[in-house]
Amino acid sequence: MNQSENLLKLLPNDIGGLPADRVERIDHLLEPWEKRCHALADVLDFHKIINTEEKRRGVEALGSEMIGKLSYYERWIAVFAIILFQKGVLTPDELARKMDVVAARSAANEPEKVCQ
Amino acid sequence: MPHHDHDHAHPHPPIVNKPDPVPGYYEIMETAVRELLVEKQLLGAGEIRRQIEVLDSRTPALGAKVVARAWVDPDFRARLLADGRAACEEFGISFYDDTRLIVLENTERVHNLIVCTLCSCYPRPVLGLPPDWYKAKPYRARAVKEPRAVLAEFGTTIPDDVEVRVSDSTAMVRYLVLPQRPAGTDGCTEEQLASLVTRDAMIGVITLNPERETVP
């Protein structure tokens, strides 16, 4: 099997059976935003806006460089944004504007609206 | 930003948590996406907070109660092995996601191990969220290819005449290992039994070695 066939047969998530390092028993307590991101995933699934398999395929579609460089929940929120753009739920412009508002609010030290 | 530029495929110190008072790019994105969806009335106000409470309520202690019940109640054990989700729901554990649960029983002849090679699927309603190592490349890549070597890295040796079965989870089908009841626990109450059951035993990376447990 040549290298391009390998790329086709093994998408970035499909790592079962590949050689890898020793298992290190790593863990961390989730940051508050990571837990909110997880809860957001569940709620998006409940409302049938984005389901688990769409999210998984979305992560895969990020490609191996982004999968390697973004952390677990960074990948999730990036994929939610991309899928919401694809479905026409959000536009890149409105997300960019909202992120500016949120960043400005944080810089001004206003309390974050965890859940309105 | 915690874990920025990390691929989680390399060793870390065991529990890492860095205080991060300034929200980073992805945290800002999370807040912005959530607020936009609420403004558009696609999500109800408070739904995220309620789901966080649900997530916080799910820990391996729930799975441990299921295991202990299965050890003391053969009829429950039979129902659990027949339909894991229905038996857990009967036991009072709601499934907030749309997943099936298959419970895999360890015996004298078979040791089970669960993994999700594609991502991080895990029996969250009964165990909570998976540990980072479960989601990282070394475990996902190697558990299906060389499970005994992976088990050895957890300090677990399964005798050669015991079959090791690895089950690969999917978005719709999740697994839970029913460990063998440790020897010498005949006098234990159900609650005492539950206290012996650990998360890693229900993933299958360890056994409940009676030599290492203090049995009341």
Short overview:
Chain A is an all-alpha fold and 116 residues long. Chain A is 60% helix and 0% strand. Chain A has helices at 3-9, 32-46, 52-61, 63-69, 72-86, 92-107.
Structural overview:
The complex is a heterodimer of chains A (116) and B (216). With 116 residues, chain A is mainly alpha-helical. Helices cover 60% and strands 0% of the residues of chain A. In chain A, helix 2 packs parallel to helix 5 (72-86) and helix 3 (52-61) crosses helix 5 (72-86). Chain A is globular, with a radius of gyration of 17 Å. Chain A starts with a helix and ends in a 9-residue tail after the last helix. Chain B is α/β, with parallel strands linked by helices and 216 residues long. Chain B is built from 11 helices and 4 strands; from the N terminus they run H-H-H-H-H-E-E-H-H-H-H-E-E-H-H. In chain B, the strands form 2 sheets. A two-stranded parallel sheet of chain B has the order 1-4. The longest helix of chain B has 15 residues, at 25-39. The termini of chain B are far apart. In chain B, 41% of the residues are buried. Mean pLDDT of chain B is 90; it is low at 1-10 and 212-216.
Salient structural properties:
heterodimer, A: 116 residues, mainly alpha, 0% strand, B: 216 residues, alpha/beta, two-stranded parallel sheet, 11 helices, 4 strands, disordered N terminus
The dominant shape of chain A is: globular
Query: Order of SSEs of chain B, N→C?
Result: HHHHHEEHHHHEEHH
Q: Which H/E pattern describes the elements of chain A?
A: HHHHHH
Main sheet attributes: strand count, strand direction, barrel closure of chain A: none
Parts with pLDDT < 50 across at least 5 consecutive residues of chain B: 1-10, 212-216
Low-confidence stretches of chain A: none
Query: Which chain pair has the greatest contact?
Result: A-B, 66 and 74 residues
